[in-house]
Structure formats: C-alpha cells, structure tokens
Amino acid sequence: MRLSHSRVGVGAVSMIVLAVVAFARPAAATTAAALCGAAANPCVVNTAITVDDLSVIDLGNRALLVTSTGSLNVGSGTMTILAGVITVEQGGSITGLGSGSLPGGIITMRGSDLNVAGLIRSDGAPPRDITLEFTGAVTISGTVSARALFRNASGAVIVVEGASANISGTLDARAGTEDSSGGEIDVTTVASMTISGTITTVGPDGGGITLEAGTGFGGGNLTLTRSSRLFADGAFQSGFGGNVDLSAAGNALTTGSIQLGGAITVTGHNNPSIELGGGSGGCLTILADGNVVADNPTGFADCGPGSVGALCVRGGGTDGDGGEIDISTNVGTVVLASPVDVSAPGNDGGAGTFSIDAGGPIVVVSSINAAGGEGGDVALTSTNGSVTVDSGATINTSGRAGGSGGSICLESASVRAGMPAAVVSSGMLLADGGAGLGPITGGLGGAIELIGLDSARLAGLASAEGGLGGGLGGGVVVTANDGPAFVEGTVRARGRGEAGGSVAVDGSRIEMRGSIDVSGSTGGAALTDIGLRSTGAIFIAGPMTASGSPGSGGLIEVISEGTVAIAGTLTADAGTMPGGRVLVRGCTVLNCIPTAEGCDGGTGAVRALGPGGTNRFTGRDQVIVFGTMTANNQTGRNEVVVRPPTSENAVILGGVATPAAVVIADDTLLPCPVCGNRVIEPPETCDDGNTMDGDGCSSTCRLEGLIIPGDANGDFVVNDDDIGFLAAEIYDGDGDQLGDVSGGAFRGSPGADANDDDRITAADFVALAEILGE
Question: Which residue has the higher pLDDT, 654 or 334?
Fold first, then answer.
C-alpha cells in the first residue's frame, strides 16, 4: 500500500511547537519579578518565598539581598539564581530543604561576589548538590550544608568558586550513619583562600575535601588558621577515612604557599566486631609551589585516644591500618611544627606513611607517629636544601606485639644546587621491633637512614632494636656524600635474644663522639656489625659495641684513607667460636692515650674477648699503639700490619696488648696519597693544591658536587673571577703548563676544564671566553 502525504501549514506547525514548549516548562516558575521590582537594586527578600521547581531567577547584574527575615526555599526541586553581589544575612536562608524521606533540592548560584552569614542548605534523603560560582570574593561566615537526613544516605557535593575566599563558617556534606559515605566539598580560588571555620565530609566512610588556591596567573596562598577544622573521617563502625587534597600555586615567593594552623583528620573508625575490624585511615595530600608551614604545636585531641595529631590519618580499632600523608613543594621550605599521626593504634594494624618531598629545606620540630602492629614509613627528602629534625621532635615507626619496626629516611639534595644540603637529627628516631606477646617472638628492628650531601649529623637518638623476646636488630645508616659525617648521639640496633643489627657511617671525614651498640645474643659478623668508612680522617671518642655474647661475636670495621684516631672503646666480645673481630685500617692508625696529639684527651681501648677473637690494625703509613688491645689470652690474637721496615712503621708500647701484638710486614701495602700536592694519586680524583672543601675538589681530593665547565674557583658561577683561577691551574710557578708536565691529564680544579676535554690547557681560556661571551 502506498502511503499518502498531506501538507501541514505554517500556522499549524507553530501551534505544535508552542504546545511542546509549554509542556516542557513547569506550569509556574518563580522569576526575578516575584522577588522585587524590575528596577530594585539590591533586590531585597525579607519574607519567606517558596520557589517553584526548575526556576531560574535572573537578576542580571543587580545585587540580591536576603535579609534576616527572608528566605528562598525550593524544597526538593531545582533552583538557579543569577545576580551580581549575593548576600545572605544572618537568619536569612536559601534552601532546597528535604526531610528524612524526601530529597533535598539542587541549588545553583552565580554572580560576582558572595556573602553568606546565614544559611544555604540542600539537606535531605538524599541531599542534593550546591554549586556556588562567583567571579569575585566569596565570604562564608554562616553555613552551607548538603548533609544526609537519613541513615543510609551519602553526603552530596558542594562546589565553591571565586577570585578569593574567606570561610569562617561551616561547609557540611556529612552522610548518614550506615552504609554510606561523606560527600565532596571543593573550594577553588583564582587568588588566595583563608579557612578559619569547619569543613566536614564525615560518614561511615569519609568523603573528600579539595581546597585549591592560586589557579589564576598570579597564583595565591592557602591559609588554614588555628581555628580551622577539616574532617573527612570514617566516623562510624569500620569506616574508612576519605581524602583531603590541598594545593597552592604561585611564584613561590609571595604566592604559592600553604599555612596549616588548624587540624585535619581523615581517620578510620573502630568496630568492636572482630570479624569486621577497624577501618583504615585515609589520604591527605598537600602540594605547594612555595612554602608549607604547619604550625599547630598543641595538636588536636579529636585525632583519637592518646593522640594529639593536628594532621591525623590514623587507623581505627585493633586492626585498622594507618593512612597516608604526602607533602610536596616545588621550591619551597617545609616547616613541620604540628604533630602528625599516621599510626595504627591496635596490635594488628599496620601503620601508614608520611612523606615530605621539598624543593627547599625541611625543618621538623614536632612529633611524627607512624607506630603500629607493623611500623610505618617516614621519608623526608629535600631536592635542594637541608633536612633538620629538632631536639624536641620524635619520629616513631616502631612495631608492637611482635611487629617489625618501620623505616625512617632523611635525605638532603643528591646534587649540589646552590644552598646548604645537610642532614641533621637532634631528636629521637625510633624504628624498634615490638616486644614478643605470648607465643609471638619479638619483632625485627627497622631501618633508619640519614643521607646528606654536604654533611650528615646524628646528635640525638637513633634506635632500630629488635623487640624483646627474640627480635633481630635492625639497621642504621649515616652517610655524607660530599662531606663529613658526625655521630654525637646514641645509635642502637641491638638484637633481643637474637643477633644484633648493623650500623654504617660514611663520609669524607668521620667524628664519632656518641655511642653505637649493635650487640646481640647470637649471630656473627654477617648480622652484627659496625662499619665506618671515610675518604679522610676518622676520630672515634665514644664506645662502639658489637658483642655477640653468649653467641659468636660481631664485627667492627673501620676503614679510612686518612688517619684513624681511636680515643674510645671498641668492643666485639663473644661467648662462642668464632670470636668477634675489630679491624681498623688507615694511613696512620693511632690508638690513643690522653696526652697524645690528635687524641683530644681520650684513651683507646680495643677488645675482642672470646674464643678466636681478633683485633687488627693495618697502617699504610704507620701504626701507633698507645692504648690497649685485648683479646682472649689463649685463643685470641692482636695484629699490627704495616709496610716494611716494621721497626719504623709500627710503634707499640710494651704491656698495652694482651696477648702481645704480632707485627706483620706487608710489602703490598701502598703509602697513602698526599692531598694538596697537585699530583693525583689514586684514589684521588683531583688535586687542586689545597685541602679546602667547596671548591669542586674536596679536602680529601675527591670531585665534589655539581661541576660547571669554566667555574675554576668552584663558586658555582662562571664569571670574570674565574679567569685568574684558570691561569693558576694552567701554569705553575715557572710558567710551565701543568698539562705538559703530566701529559695533559686532568689535575686541577674540575671546573677549570672549561672545554670539558679532561685536560687543563690554554684551550680552556678560549672556551671560558666563549662562555663569558654568551
């Protein structure tokens, strides 16, 4: 059958379109005219007005004022308000108010400035979203709420945007009490933002909070004052913490910084049910182009029982795991004066992680709690600056109830970039294993590392002991890549009913005036050991103990390419074979008495009592024994190894070695190089004629830091000042080219090699001139 076509007139089409449009719109919609006259500016609302669903109230550029007696309520519907400046006075409200059985309304507001002293609310079952988008300043001293009014309802979304924001009131997107999660609150500003009020997205599982300042060209700062509170907790049984993200972009000088003066909690919650267990802590991320300063030293009691963490993402209950906190800066400094808690409070939960990755220095003056059934991890890293842990600070990653200790890593810049880059810890660093509990043996000690570029200094306590009841000792490392290492405090890595741990100290020079103890009950040198290695001098004034009694002894090994002066006690006793060992090797090895030069009033005492114990001094130039060497008188051994003739290179005063020292002539030993004689002698990698650090060639004649071609004086800048230094590198006192004397091999300040050909010659003048010309 063929279909027939009929023509419809234009008028009929128009009637159809009008009918469709009329059907799509609400029967009645609230307009601006329902609020005030067309010329009113501001448009004042001072009575209660019910707004129809799907209403768009467009005031153009006119201001809207909702007084203390006024309100706009769309119920469970949708309302959009477009205006210039919008003000809600205290007592006034703009709401989409639902109930325990009705959803809230959807509220969207756009304009220039926003001032809220009253209430904006879309609570309900479920609550609905609130969007506040403004091009100017946003000030909220009242309440903006999108919270659930039913136990199974989640929180809604609150979005706030402005050129700047000052929030001293409350933003609330809480969930119900069962099977739900907190909502999302996002605040974004083109410039700066200040929070002195409360922002909460708590629920059975915590929700999310995002504060982002400085999205515009000039950037901005984010300030959380002392009165500020950010909550994204799992607040009910077995709840998991949510997420909090803070950021500030800018030039890192006047903008791009974050000030954390209040409290932030993203915790998990307990559950008395063993089957369900506790919830884990959430995540807190802080990212700034400039400085980050956390300065709430008194903390916040609501972090959890026994905790005052101002930055708190701890777990809940007996087995809830700790959460994660990450702080990063582009070029800024991080100052941590607020207590941090990423712990697992129960015996069965693992602690979380805390990290700082800063483009500038890091200073810690408060506590960091990362303890748990298994210890957590703390890493503080500066890519261009020093890391300092103050004497009043404690970093704790210890385990409990047989759990292992965690890790602590403090690391300054790995490449020299123009500012001091040291690691200094005067506080308490704890990574101990947990004590045994019932049939559970003690936990393994954790790991502690201090890694500095310019220097590393441990002036406080570093403890990585095994837990009582069978815990192996852990490990402690103190390393200075381009400078001296100092141990002035207490270092412990003892085993408890098991083998001890290990301690390693490395640097261009080492001063050990504190104490080191890695003793254990069993195990030998493979587990229980202390190692000191230096390209320069080593001075030991404090006690070092690596005993294995009643088991086999441990190992103390000191290796230097300079002088080793022993003015303290080195002990590696043992109860069984093989005995412990104390091995010291250097250019000159000096076992001190108080009156000897370079001994600083100390006395050296080296001991390896136990069957088969050995003490050995090896001097590439000389060994001088003023102090004592003590080994087992029947099966032990004291040895002095030098180059021949032994009568000149070994000086031993009678009666100080028990049993008597055996002097061994070793003609394979090479004499030590002399740094500063302008001759590169292995293992030297440079020799610029001096023993100064910081000029590109260290005090031990090793290449140091960043080498810049043309930087002949080692100040990390290439300018006219380098011309004279380059000349001094090329010519000696007679005017001969040093390159000719050594066959053109590199021999001076490394930066003097301006053309980067591994030779210091007149061609480098040409290369330097080209660099300066550029």
Answer: 334
How much is the average pLDDT of 541-563? 89
Compute the average pLDDT of residues 297-305: 84
Where in the chain are the domains? 370-498, 499-672, 677-774
Q: Which two tokens stand for residue 268?
A: 């998990």
The confidence score (pLDDT) of residue 416 equals 67
Token pair of 5, please?
A: 């076509």
| Peptide bond between residue 750 and the one before it cis (omega within 30 degrees of 0) | no
Q: Which two tokens stand for residue 578?
A: 């093989």
Which residues, 6 or more positions from 748, have their beta carbon under 8 angstroms from its beta carbon? Answer: 678, 686, 687, 688, 689, 697, 729, 738, 760
Q: Count the neighbouring beta carbons within 10 Å of the beta carbon of residue 188.
A: 18
The CA distance from 609 to 553, in Å, is: 9
Pairing of strands 605-608, 628-631: parallel
Question: Would you tell me how many other CB atoms lie within 10 Å of the CB of residue 215?
Answer: 16
763-773 and 721-730 helices, crossing angle to 10°: 170
Q: How far is CA 439 from CA 401, 402, 436, in A?
A: 10, 10, 7
DSSP 726-763: HHHHHB-TTS-BHHHHTTT---S-GGG-TT-SS--STH
> What span, in angstroms and rounded, lies between the C-alpha atoms of 493 and 500?
6
pLDDT at residue 707 greater than cutoff 90: no
Better-scored residue on pLDDT, 309 or 732: 309
Cα–Cα distance measured from residue 296 to residue 632, given in angstroms and rounded to the nearest whole number:
57
* Residue 600 pLDDT grade (very low, low, confident, very high; cuts 50, 70, 90): very high
Please give the structure tokens belonging to residue 562: 């300079």
508, 484 contact by CB (below 8 A):
yes
Token code pair at residue 565:
């002066």
pLDDT value at 47 more than 90: yes
Mean pLDDT confidence for 552-556: 85
For the residues 740-761, what does the mean pLDDT come to? 62
- In the chain, what is the straight-line distance between the N-terminal and C-terminal CA atoms, in Å? 88
Please name the residues in contact with 211: beta carbons below 8 A apart, sequence gap of 6 or more: 187, 193, 195, 199, 222, 245, 246, 247
In angstroms, the CA 95 to CA 72 distance is: 6
- The dihedral over CA atoms of 255, 257, 263, 266, expressed in degrees to the nearest 10, equals 110
Strands (E), 513-604: 515-517, 529-534, 538-540, 544-545, 555-560, 563-566, 569-571, 581-591
- Burial class of residue 741 (count of CB atoms within 10 Å of its CB; 0-12, 13-18, 19+): middle
User: pLDDT at residue 9 above 50?
Assistant: no
Q: What letter does residue 447 receive in the DSSP assignment?
A: E
Close Cβ partners of 537 (under 8 Å, ≥ 6 residues apart): 509, 510, 560, 562, 563, 564, 565
Q: How far apart, in Å, are the Cα atoms of 350 and each of 284, 373, 375, 425, 444?
A: 17, 5, 6, 25, 14
Three state DSSP letters for 394-421: EEECCECCCCCCCEEEEECCCCCCCCCC
What is the Cα–Cα distance from 605 to 628, expressed in whole angstroms? 5
Output the DSSP codes for 40-95. -SSEEE-SEEEPPTTEEEE-TT--EEE-TT-EEE-TTSEEEEE-SSEEE-TT-EEE
CA-wise closest residue to 149 among 170, 173, 132: 173
Cα(222)–Cα(577) distance, rounded to whole angstroms? 64
